[in-house]
Amino acid sequence: MTDSIFIGGGGPEYGEPQTLLLGQANRHGLIAGATGTGKTVTLQILAEGFSAAGVPVLLSDVKGDLAGLARAGSVEFKLHDAFAARAAKIGLHDYAYRAFPVTFWDLFGRSGHPVRTTVAEMGPLLISRMLDLTEAQEGVVNICFRVADEEKLALLDLKDLQALLVWAGENAKDLSLRYGNVSTASIGAIQRRLLVLENEGGAELFGEPALALSDLMLTDESGAGRINILDAGRLMQAPRLYATFLLWLLSELFEELPEVGDPEKPKLVFFFDEAHLLFDDAPKALVDKVEQVARLIRSKGVGVYFVTQNPADVPDDVLGQLGNRVQHALRAFTAKDQSDLRKAAQTYRDNPDFSTEEAIREVGTGEAVTSMLERKGAPGVVQRTLIRPPSSQLGPISEMQRAEVMAGSPVTGKYEAEVDRESAFEILQARAAAAARAAAEAEARADAQEVGEREFRNARRYDPGASRAQPRSRRAPPSLGEQMTKMVVKELTGTTGRRIVRGIFGTLFKGR
C-alpha cells in the first residue's frame, strides 16, 4: 500500500505527476471549477484513492452520479477507449476497473439507510441557523434548551421542540423574569419556521435511533475504507437544511473524536459538496465556528474537502486552511468573474513555466490546475494536470443495484425502524392532562360547595318547626314607651350623653 493517491499529470504539455500525500490529507482541500469541468470525476477518483488506502469517506451525492462507486467500470462503457488512452498517457500502467465498498444514506430513508439526529444533539445554534431566526428568536430557542436541561425534558424530535415552545408561551411571564424577554411574537415566528421545515421534510431528520458516527468510519473485510454516500438530490431542495445537516456532522466529528496529532493517514475524509450553501448569508458567528472546526479538526485525523464552483464562495479564513487544491476551469464572462479568477490564481504558488491565471481559464474538461502539499507541509508549485480516469462506474446505478448494495450493508436493519420513547412532548402532555384533571376536580368541588351553601341559605328562610308552606309569625310593633326608652339610651350613649355623664361624675367626686 502506497503513502499517496495518484491524481494525474503526464504528457509533454503537463507538469510533474501529481499525488496527494496521505500524511498531508488531513490538512484539508478544495475542488473548484465551473459546471461541467470535471469536479465530480475528481471527487470520485479521490474517494477511490482514499478507500483503497483504507480511509473511510463521507460525501454527498447531489446528482446521483457518485453511486457508481459501488460498481466496477466496464470495457463496454462508451468512454473505455478514452479512459485507457488517458491512463497510458499519464503513466497509470496498472489501471483496472474495480468496485468499492459503499454505504448509502438518505435523510428521508428512501435511497439509503435513514439518517437521524436529535434536536438536543443539533443544539440551539444550528437549529437557529436551519430556521434562519433573528437574534431575538435565537434567544428564545436558547432559553427553551436551558429549560429543557433544568426540567429534564428530552428534546428528540420536532414535536418535542414545538411542545416546549407552547409551554414557554404559556409561562412567558415567569420565564421573562428569570431569563429575559420571551415574547409570544417570537414564539409564533419560530413555530411558523418549524412548520416550513416540517413541510420540507425536515421532521424526518430528527428522532431516534440517532446516527452513530462510528458507522461512518468502517472498513470492509479487505481493509478498504467504506465510502458513505449521502443522497442529497431531494435534500438540495431545502439548501439550508442540507448545509446545516452537514455542518452538524462535521461538528459532531470534532466533538467526539479523540486527538491523534498528525497520523500517517486520515481516520475519515469528509467531502462537502455545494459548499457555497454553507456560507451564503451565514452570520459571522457561524463562519467563525466553521473556521475554528476546520483549523482544529485536522488534529482529530479528519480531512475536509470543500467542493464548489468558485474559490470565492469560501471565506478567506476558511480558504486559508485548505492546503490541497484541484482547480478546474473558471469562466470569466463578467468583470466580477475576471476579478474572482485573478484572486483564485493569486492563491497558488507560481510556476515560472506558465501563467496560473491563463491556465485556469484555458484548461479543458478533465484537466485542472493543481497544487498539493509537500511532505513538510509547504504548498507545491502549481501544475497543469490531466486527471486520471476512475476505476469505478462513471454515472448512476439502477434502483435494483442500489437495493442489492443496501441489503449487504453492515448497518442494514439498524436504523430503519424509528423509536419514539418518552420525551418532552409526552411529559408536557401528561403534565397538561394532570393540570386539567385537577382544575376539573376543583371546579366540581366549588360547584358542590356552592349548591350546599345555596340550599343552606334557602333553608334559613323558614321556621324549622313550621311547615314549609307557612312563614314564621312576625313580632308585634314596639309600644310608645319602648320607643322613648330606646331614644334615651341612644342619646346617652352618644357624644352628648358621654359629656353629661362625665359632668355628673366630675361634680360628685370633685372634692376627692
Short précis:
The protein has helices at about 40-50, 80-90, 120-130, 135-150, 160-170, 170-180, 185-200, 240-255, 275-280, 285-295, 315-320, 335-345, 355-360, 400-405, 425-460, 480-495, 495-510, and strands at about 5-10, 20, 30, 55-60, 100-105, 115, 225-230, 270-275, 300-310, 325, 365-370, 385. The chain is an alpha/beta fold and about 500 residues long. The protein has a ten-stranded mixed sheet, sandwiched between helices. It has a two-stranded antiparallel ribbon with strand order 1-2.
Could you please describe the fold and organization of this structure?
The chain has 512 residues and is of the alpha/beta class. It has helices spanning 39-52, 80-89, 119-131, 135-150, 158-170, 172-179, 184-199, 239-256, 276-279, 284-296, 316-319, 335-346, 356-362, 399-407, 424-459, 480-493, 495-508, and strands at residues 4-8, 18-21, 29-32, 57-61, 102-106, 113-114, 227-231, 268-273, 302-308, 324-327, 367-371, 383-386. It folds into two domains: 4-115 and 212-397, P-loop containing nucleotide triphosphate hydrolases (Rossmann fold), CATH 3.40.50.300; 119-202, no CATH class. It contains 17 helices and twelve strands. Strands 6-5-7-4-8-9-3-10-11-12 form a ten-stranded mixed sheet, sandwiched between helices. Strands 1-2 form a two-stranded antiparallel sheet. α5 (158-170) runs parallel beside α15 and α12 crosses α13 (356-362). The longest helix is centred in the last third of the chain and has 36 residues, at 424-459. The termini are far apart.
